[in-house]
Amino acid sequence: MRTQVAIIGAGPAGLTLGRLLEGAGIDAVIIEQRSAEYVLGRIRAGVLEQSSVDLLRQMGVNQRMDAEGIFHDGIELSFDGEMLRVNFNELIARRVMVYGQTEVTRDLMDARTASGAKSIYEAGDVHIHDFDGETPRVTFTKDGQTHQIECDFIAGCDGFHGVSRASVPPSAISLFERVYPFGWLGVLVDQPPVAEELIYAHHKRGFALCSMRSLTRSRYYVQVDSTEKAENWSDDRFWDELRARLNPDIAESLKTGPSIEKSIAPLRSFVAEPLRFGRLFLTGDAAHIVPPTGAKGLNMAIHDVMELATALQEFYGERSDAGINAYSGNVLENTWRTERFSWWMTQLLHTFPDSGDFGRRIQRADFDYLAASRIARQSLAENYTGFRA
Ligand code: FAD
Ligand code: DHB
């Protein structure tokens, strides 16, 4: 088999890149180790920046998003129950959209099926080869047979645990990482959301987030120790803990019910440098991880592949290397800006086991500064809705 671009991974990065390349007339094959159903079963992010919404529209995968996505003008912050609204629309005339990663993934998969573009699911033992030369290859097994795809480029869209980054010689790559001593326990429930907008709550018992997927489906999170197991959390225990971390009036109006999904996500900040190795590019979670507090992971993945698709279009259309040479530097600039913001939101809102009373007073001062300063709120708004230099 031969293609121009072999895309490893059918998460948001791989599927978006596939769609962009298809639109540009560049041939690509997606190789994914899991089944399509498994990929769609993962409950992850929920907030899209305007630029992600715009791109999904530009790619023609917006029908369901425009019908079901919900625009939010801002978010609520809560500090020990004290509320502070940050109205992005009023502060900087920008908004975000609540539309789940699962739905984005489904829309992109459906569009790919409709157009007949090639995807290989349940590929085993995926390996990438010779990306330091002119003719890279991907090998994998499927239905008991070994297959090989020759290509011009490999796009590593295979997430944090994928094979792409792991195939780079350690001497050629630098890794920057901070692992937080806690995770998020998330619950999905078929009940209307507790508030019209998302609530990010700091509490001395730990962080909590009230989010949503639709007007009838809510997503809630509480910060838990990184050693916790989801099995140890009955629904009742979860709801009690969530209520304890919210403003009492909001806690009282919370509508609970049986959880339809419950899982723990670890929190990590991580960046790999550089992001291009010959004819291999790293994108999305293969390249960087942010703690979920700023709702950035999915949006960064989409931004990376927009940059890569433009670079590849320049390569094939204009025979210019300029875009592929600039890819790593451009993406890293956006990555570190977003890493800083996600780290800052995490720092402001979580309870850290070792920071003591001094750390709590600093968090309070940060919250009070936001409440007092329009410029501070504008900065939050600019970053949350997606700042591009
Ligand atoms: P992924 O979505 O991870 O996709 C990578 C794909 O590659 C997967 O389908 C995987 O099966 C496949 N793959 C892996 N290895 C191989 C291989 N060897 N061969 C072939 N295919 C392979 N962000 C938020 O903003 N808010 C959240 O609440 C949130 N929750 C999260 C919860 C979890 C448990 C995780 C892991 C992430 C969460 N994120 C969240 C982050 C966000 O979901 C990611 O940033 C986003 O999914 C990145 O997209 P991606 O396509 O780069 O990677
Ligand atoms: C969701 C996740 C986030 O990390 C976030 O910041 C906002 C919303 C969510 O899953 O709905």
Break the fold down into its secondary structure elements and pairings.
Blueprint (H helix, E strand, L loop, with lengths): L4 E4 L3 H12 L4 E4 L4 H6 L5 E3 H9 L4 H6 L1 E3 L1 E6 L2 E6 H5 L3 E3 L2 H15 L3 E2 L3 E6 L7 E6 L2 E6 L2 E4 L6 H4 L7 E16 L9 E4 L5 E5 L5 E8 L9 H11 L2 H6 L5 E15 L2 E2 L2 E3 L5 E2 L7 H22 L3 H28 L6 H17 L1 H11 L5
Parallel strand pairs: 1-2, 1-12, 2-8, 5-14, 12-19
Antiparallel strand pairs: 3-7, 4-7, 5-6, 9-10, 10-11, 13-16, 13-17, 14-15, 15-16, 17-20, 18-19
The structure holds flavin-adenine dinucleotide and 3,4-dihydroxybenzoic acid.
How are the strands ordered across the major sheet? 6-5-14-15-16-13-17-20
Mean pLDDT: 97
Helix content: 25-40%
* Tally of DSSP β-strands: 20
Main β sheet profile: 8 strands, mixed
